Amino acid sequence: MSITWNDSAPIYRQLRDRVVAMILDGVLNEGDALPSVRQVAADFQLNPITVSKAYQELVDEQLVEKRRGLGMYVNEGARDALLKNERERFLREEWPALYARLKRLGLDMDRLMQESRKQEGESA
User: Fold this and answer.
1) Is the dihedral of CA 115, 117, 121, 124 positive or negative?
2) Fewest beta carbons within 10 Å, which of 10, 27, 41, 121?
3) Are 58 and 18 found together in one domain?
4) Considering its fold, how many domains does the chain have in total?
5) Rounded to whole angstroms, how far apart are CA atoms 121 and 124?
6) CA angle 80, 82, 88 (to 5 degrees)
7) In whole angstroms, how far apart are CA 71 and each of 33, 46, 48, 56, 59?
8) Domain span including residue 90
9) What is the CA radius of gyration of the chain?
10) pLDDT of residue 124
11) Is 16 part of a structural domain of the chain?
C-alpha cells in the first residue's frame, strides 16, 4: 500500500479512503485481514492513534470487523455495499457537473464510446 498524503483531508480519512479503494479494487477481499495498526503506523510513520481512528471509521461503517486478539477483517458484503454507496455518491455529486461539462463541449455517448475503444486498443 503506497500512499502520498496531502493537505486536502485529515490523514486518518485519507487512510480510510485508501483501504476503501483497496476493497473496491479487489486488493482486499471479504475475510482478508487488514495490516495491523502497528504495522501501518511503522510503515508510514504515523501515530498509531491516527491508524486506529481510520480503522474505527471502517468498523463504524460495518466494512470491517474487529476480532479480539486477531485484528481487523473485511466483512462479507463490504465491496457490494461500497459499490452501491460510491455509485449513488457519483450520480448525486459528480455526474451532474460532468454531464454539464460534456454538454458544454458538445460530446455525446457515441463519441465518448469511440474514444474509449480507441484508448483500450492503444493500451492492449
Assistant:
1) positive
2) 121
3) yes
4) 2
5) 5
6) 105
7) 7, 18, 14, 12, 12
8) 79-123
9) 18
10) 66
11) yes
